[in-house]
Amino acid sequence: MAFWVYILQCSDGSYYVAHSDNLEERLQQHHSGTLGGHTKARRPVRLAYSAEFPTRDEAFAAEQQIKGWTRKKKEALMREDWEELPRLARGRQRGSAHPSTGSG
After folding, report:
1. pTM for the full predicted model
2. Are 39 and 8 in contact (CB under 8 A)?
3. Cα 58 to the chain's mean position, in Å?
4. Per residue in 1-36, pLDDT tens?
5. Residues 56/21, Cβ–Cβ less than 8 Å
6. Nearest residue to 44 (alpha-carbon basis) of 67, 60, 28, 22
7. At a CB cut-off of 8 Å and minimum separation 6, what does 59 contact?
8. How far apart, in whole angstroms, are the C-alpha atoms of residue 39 and residue 12?
9. Contact 18, 67 (CB under 8 A)
10. What distance in Å separates the CA atoms of residue 35 and residue 101, rounded to the nearest whole number?
11. Three-state DSSP class for 104?
12. For residue 104, is it within any domain?
């Protein structure tokens, strides 16, 4: 069984990050508004990024990591700009009060 982490772009420009074991069904739920919460009031939504993981734990860990990222870093991930991602992580660490704890 596969698990997915995904990013939706909402109609107000905000991003919603989550994980699921059934991406197609979850997207239908977001589109229809049956899930409530953040995306229901911000429809329509658009799938901006998804990645497959072999376990729920890995998908959940990726979700939590991405949720902690800046908007710019999320956008680099959605563009699959693999050169920009580490630069954005380093830039945030340099500016943080606790550089050893920041992952960008």
Report:
1. 0.84
2. yes
3. 13
4. 999 999 999 999 999 999 999 999 999 999 999 998
5. yes
6. 28
7. 3, 4, 5, 19, 20, 53
8. 10
9. no
10. 34
11. coil
12. no
